[in-house]
Design goal:
By secondary structure, this protein is of the alpha+beta class. The chain has helices at residues 2-38, 42-54, 61-85, 102-115, 149-155, 173-198, 203-235, 257-285, 287-318, and strands spanning 89-99, 119-126, 137-145, 161-171, 236-245.
Length: 320
């Protein structure tokens, strides 16, 4: 009997033990779940801190991203600045200037060029005729250091009225790099040929190497000349300047209809005054020739009149 009752007792005890464990597990899960949602439990608050400590990437990730982005931006900015510094640019400026004081403007131009460290590459002055109304003009090609181009452009207003101003920039960075690499390759080839010439054993080999060396040196000098030309154009910007002598500066085109009529009438008066001025200059300059022509015409008239009178008298005598 003792053995008969021990088996059911064991089964009943096992069932009670399993039920108790299940209830305890449910209570623990519910406790952690409620603590995580409410955020008021010490256990629930400690768990996220512990997780964050074990995974440092979650701690201050926004600051780390910002610092990385700033570093990358600084690197890109530095690369762009370096690329701009390595750019080879040829800058050309073209301008037209009116002046009422021609000689003074030319003197100021010379002072301006030399003050910037530049030089006058070419110049042409024309229109110096006093018996016509052709105004004087000058055309210059100036070369100024590239870093002084802006200063020279701003100083053009000292010469007179700037009516036209255009600028052009040519990027020759690729041509510069290509020419530079070709020069380096040819220099290496020249050094190699010189080394081979020292080791040449026969006269035929020596002559062949000399021919190759002459060709390499010719090409090297050609590329070196191109490089010097590029360096000069990049280092010194060009200014193409036209200076025109005028009596009155060109005014800005009026906007209103009345102003346009007034400007047109003013231009007509100026044209008429210019015509009479030119006529007076022509008459004074050719007064002797004009007097000779007047005397000649008077004599011709007197001769013709005398001939006509003589003809009429002869006809009257011949009448019965």
């Amino acid at each position: 009997m003792k053995k008969h009752y021990s088996i059911p007792a064991l089964i009943l005890a096992s069932i009670l033990l399993l039920s108790a464990c299940g209830a305890a597990q449910s209570t623990t899960d519910a406790y952690y779940y409620g603590a995580e949602n409410s955020g008021r439990s010490d256990i629930g608050a400690a768990a996220p801190e512990e997780m964050a400590y074990e995974n440092p990437r979650n701690y201050g990730s926004d600051d780390l991203y910002t610092a990385t982005a700033s570093t990358q931006d600084s690197k890109n900015s530095g690369q762009q600045s370096l690329a701009q510094d390595n750019q080879k640019l040829i800058k050309t400026l073209s301008a037209v200037v009116e002046t009422t004081e021609f000689e003074a403007s030319l003197q100021k131009l010379s002072e301006l060029v030399f003050s910037t460290g530049g030089y006058i590459e070419s110049s042409t002055v024309g229109g110096q005729s006093y018996n016509t109304r052709i105004s004087r003009s000058a055309r210059y090609v100036l070369r100024v250091p590239a870093h002084q181009l802006d200063a020279a452009e701003n100083a053009l207003g000292q010469l007179g009225n700037v009516t036209s101003l255009t600028s052009q920039v040519s990027d020759v960075t690729l041509s510069w790099a290509d020419t530079e690499s070709r020069i380096k390759a040819l220099e290496a080839q020249r050094d190699s040929l010189l080394s081979m010439m020292e080791k040449a054993e026969t006269l035929t080999d020596l002559l062949q190497l000399q021919d190759h060396l002459a060709d390499v040196e010719y090409r090297l000098e050609s590329y070196a000349s191109q490089m010097r030309m590029l360096e000069n154009k990049v280092s010194y910007s060009s200014i193409r300047l036209d200076i025109q002598e005028v009596k009155i500066y060109t005014e800005k085109e009026p906007d209103s209809f009345g102003d346009k009529l007034s400007q047109s009438f003013k231009n007509s008066l100026e044209s008429l005054g210019g015509f009479f001025e030119s006529l007076a200059i022509f008459l004074v300059g050719n007064i002797l020739i004009i007097l000779c022509w007047i005397i000649f015409l008077v004599l011709m008239v007197l001769v013709i009149r005398a001939f006509i009178k003589k003809s009429h008298k002869k006809k009257a005598q011949n009448k019965p």
